[in-house]
């Protein structure tokens, strides 16, 4: 009987369910999906097959040590006590790949330094020499995952990330991740049951992954090396058997079409298709989506339109509006799946989605939406589907809600008892007068009832002492009713602010701005005011009054300055107001 052990497959956010289904088809046991990972149990054969055949996995890890630590020094202590001689030798090279999600451990690089020191010190104490560190293509790649205080040390059996299939020889700007492309296709449910179209194929990632799925070809056959091939217990015959097995491959029945508006993108995509050896299943051409012909056979459209870096300075709203218009009026009946970054892009499409799910494309939060395409109106399409016994749209199945777990010693808190009106039969009914309400016909408040006094349980109740007269109506200005409250604009000026009075100077300026007086007249008036303010201490009161009122015609004729521009008058008026 072969030995089974725990294995962890890393993936992208949103693809955990697809990866778990792939593992079930491979025969994995005790599958436990998590956050960006799926844990399962298997043997060495399953470890090799997972690296070779899984389409939505990034790395395959084999945990070897688990413990809890508060800081990097405790990580060093636990790792130095572990027997590394069964995994490494002094002649091997190794590297540390830390992944830290913790408030206690702030520096992942420092954790990798301490882990490296622990392994080196272990070999120095036991053999007198230590293995070397190599950052690129080491013999043994050690993954350290820290979640809060839980530390898991694993052996990375993949080496380079599994999204690097090996068929990509060239790429366009911001290409789609191969793992994400395969996950999107598997989420749509496409299994070579109709033609597949990508009208914005770019470097051809989606169409190549679709061809691999249609032909059931393992995505790892293009890779040159896996990290487990350097392990001391590597089984060459077992891996060769899995690598050479092509019994599950099949011949695709439908075509895969890829097009793009850029000739350079099609040239790059053709290179990648030729490298994959799937050219007979994929047809590429330079074709804008606006000119895409109507498909003759049933189809599914899956595309990743430009956004972010690929969109550049182009208008995203116009691009996605064009996509929605073409899907509605040109492609006929079918299904379309679009991956985009911003919600505004989807709003520009203008179609109602039948499916939504959040995904991660690198560091970008994206969303995958599915649309059901049909000719005519939605009501006509729904009536036609009902006649066929089908539903008009596909909705995601709602997950069954499990009961929230509670502690074993949990007891429901006792409900609060209403002691005041526990016995409603003995409750006395009182009239409105007895409850202390004011009556306009009598002009006074009634005396309080017994129920309004302090009750037996200590509740305080309001009661009125004597008679109370109604107060006069108050206004926002305070005090009794104010007639000014009915004046227009009173409340906008404040509670006590009076109506503002326009000064003589402001009125004259307003006349000038409205064109009632000329520039020369306004300039002369401002000059008189400035001179009067400078010499007002020496002039008699009648003289100053004559100047301010414009009655001193002699001074006006003698001191009149040449005609000034509007800008000069504005400067003088600003100086006047600042004083």
Automatic annotation (TrEMBL):
Q: Which domain of life is it from?
A: Bacteria
Ranges of residues in domain THUMP: 46-157
Question: Which stretches does UniProt call biased (Basic and acidic residues)?
Answer: 394-406, 414-444, 453-470, 534-548, 567-579
GO MF annotations in UniProt? 23S rRNA (guanine(2445)-N(2))-methyltransferase activity; RNA binding; rRNA (guanine-N7-)-methyltransferase activity
Instruction: Report residue spans for region: Disordered.
Output: 382-503, 531-579
Q: Which SUPFAM superfamilies match?
A: S-adenosyl-L-methionine-dependent methyltransferases, THUMP domain-like
EC identifiers of the protein: 2.1.1.173
- By its UniProt entry, which CDD domains does this protein fall under? THUMP_AdoMetMT (cd11715)
Q: Does the keyword Ubl conjugation apply?
A: no
Q: What class of enzyme is it?
A: transferase
Keywords from UniProt, A to Z, are: Methyltransferase, RNA-binding, Transferase
User: Is-annotated flag, keyword Ligase?
Assistant: no
Q: Which PANTHER family match?
A: RIBOSOMAL RNA LARGE SUBUNIT METHYLTRANSFERASE K/L, RIBOSOMAL RNA LARGE SUBUNIT METHYLTRANSFERASE K_L
What protein name applies here? Ribosomal RNA large subunit methyltransferase L
Record organism: Porphyromonas crevioricanis
Q: Which gene encodes it?
A: rlmL
